[in-house]
Fold these 4 entries.
Entry 1:
Amino acid sequence: MRVPNSVVLPVGTHVDCCREEEVEEKRRDIMAKIAAMLAERKSNLAHFIDNLEGSEEPEFYVDQWERLKEMESCMLTILNLVAVNCTDHRDTKKLEAAILEHVKNEDLFPEVIRVLPPVYRQVEAAIVDIAQSEEMADHGMMDLQYLLSKLSQCEHLSNLGRELLQDILRYLHRIGLVVWYEEIKHLESTVFLQPTFLITMFKLLVRYRLVQQLESIS
């Protein structure tokens, strides 16, 4: 909701736990709840903006107003939910095919036809090699400046500058190869070369009924 022009593909799992007639009913219910959530968000943002604009001294709230207007402009494209049985390999392939079909849709992703400079592919390949090397820690975290020095050791990347590397990292972050939170001050100098590590960490920290599980520990 905070990324401009986001495209979201809802995925419903555990189809094997539902009767066949339930799947479509649940699909409609989920999509309706998503639509209601987005409508409520739009209404709340408009309400907050109106309150700031109608305040006695609106000039004191310019920063908040600009942030709310920015959030208001972040439009979501919600695709039709894909229901899958994760225990069935055929359903996994069906999900993969659906994702690829959407990603290749130029109306959804205009950048899919973008031609990248060769250096982008060279840096991408070099980062993959570094991430898979034996010296790379399991967490895959690396200091940005150290990553630049490692890449500069490659013969064809000896002239790689920090600014160009940052541009390439933004691209690699968008396609999911790496994770780089450049907008978070405490993380702007750290690149996660193993995004799956973050997924594992979040699965441990963010889980259903976490508070109840912690409270059950004596």
Note: Residues 7-104 form one domain.
Entry 2:
Amino acid sequence: MQDSGHRGQSMSTFAPGSYVLKVVGGGPTMDTIKEYSEEEIYRFNSPLDKTRSLIWTTKNTTTKDSAFHIMSHNSLGIEWLCLENSPCYDTIPHSIFAPEFYFKVLVSNRGVDKSTYCDYQLTFLLHIHGLPLSAKRAFFILMVSASLFVGLVILYLIFCLLLPCMMKACNVLHWKISNIMASESYTYSTHSNTRVFIRTSGTKSGGGSRGSSRVIPKAVQENKDVPKKP
């Protein structure tokens, strides 16, 4: 209701504190901000533009020639459009944060505020976050995200299905390695026992021969001592 009342007002009855807001420059970073020409300012700000170049819009009233919107303390706010022919269209994010853009904004009350004899013109920078992406880029990001999610789900299902087979194969491999190690240990112990037995037998045989060699000379000596019968 307030909007329709404002639209019916003449230039002389605009609300006190009214002003015109225009985007006169901008860029994706502080270092790339450039000034727009008069034609570009009209295309980027005027509700009469038919080239799909509007940067922003609002439901407030317009000037007498309907070229620009008139803002005031009763304004309903701004909607950032960034249509396909505007400089902020499809701004690509350079980090994990949302797309951003720097606008150079001009605010002036000249010709729209008759409650004061003071004309002012103010220029300031406006930093906007979260600008809308183009339909193609948004669809591409959606498809990539969905593909990654589906791929992770498929990998998880494959892992769950193959896990029992992998566990069985690991158990068989462990059993075979244990058998090989056990057989090698048994062979080594058998060879060790055989070597010990051979060494023990050789030691006993050597001791017996030495004893015989000692006994035989003693018997011969006794035989020599006995006098021979005639």
Note: The chain has two domains: 20-133, 136-185.
Entry 3:
Amino acid sequence: MLSLLYQEGPSTKGIFRRSGSAKTFKELKEKLDSGTEVDLAHESIFVTASLFKDFLRNIPGSILSSQLCDKWVSVLEQGNNEEKIKSIQRLLEQLPRANVVLLRYIFGVLHGIEMRSEENQMNAFNLAICIAPSLLWPPVSSTPDIEGEFIKKISSLVQFLIENCCRIFGDEITSLFGEI
């Protein structure tokens, strides 16, 4: 999924914002969940993006770890960008290695899309709004108002992560998938 999103996302207007066919999404999700091999190359990239966000939402405790939720949300309240980046890197060290590896690929894809935002209309802010709720959620449910505030904060964090991903994850994230 990530490879396809890396290849097609940068040239796709509204990637992660528009959803594909609900029927196709449901059929493909059932196939994937049952272990059936699926060739996503012949499907709409919007369905693939929806499937990927669904995959992220189904990671127990979220990929950024709901246990670290308060720490993630408070990162942007810290001093300058350098201090924020160091805090993020310390939080990443507390995550399971598999989460960090997947995050590097995710932000490699998001960076590639953001680099062509004039073409696809998905700058870091727009990408963050679409993907942030799939990356982190609070450990306990709350009121809609509190949830709305939380989504704003986590979206700002994800925007910062996209804008600074090379400094956070290393410059090699721009070439994890090779050339587009």
Note: The chain is about 60% helix and 0% strand.
Entry 4:
Amino acid sequence: MWNSRTLQQPLLFQLLILQSLLVAAVLAQRSTTPAWNTLTGNRPLVIARGGFSGLFPDSTTLAYNFALSTSVPDVLLWCDVQLTKDGFGLCLSDVKIDNDTDIANFYPNKSTTYTVNGVRTTGYFSVDYTSTQLANVSVVQAIYSRTNLYDGLPILTVDDIAALSKPQPGIWLNIQDVVEPSTNQTYGALLKNLTFIKTFASGILVPKGYIWPVDSGLYLQPHTSL
């Protein structure tokens, strides 16, 4: 006598066979298709700019450690290097350190003016202070729409981030300039000639805004063609 359980057994068996065939097909396809559409076929590097800076203040211990614990095993930690008066390299996101530190609390009304990439710029600059003078200055959230709960973390040096990355493969030190010195062109202008760049470079690293721009409220806009 047939019952519902008897009728369900052949159907279950067929579904198991179908599932096995699908798994086999996927595995076969993976074995013949390159894993990554890159020049080398290897997966692209993951470089954490300032660590997990969407939540924590940029370039802080919390931001870097969170990136290490949540990203791929060989993630690289990015440090925007700013130099002090006595030659120490600090990890701070901008040449002006007004927004991402509380330096104004320690040195009120001590801003200076420099020509930065051809533009007269007034603010606080790390090159005006020694590492000792900045020892008690803390990093704060530079984007005011984000939480300030994690403000007050110490400024990290290049040596500090190098110690954090161990035993990771390494760190990415960035010393940026708007104008590329060998051609005297802006990087934005260079991107209009990617065919030429490809003749001597195996890859490019650009600000994420070049790929996913944001509006004045920092909301993502449609991606560019880059």
Note: The two ends are 67 Å apart (CA to CA).
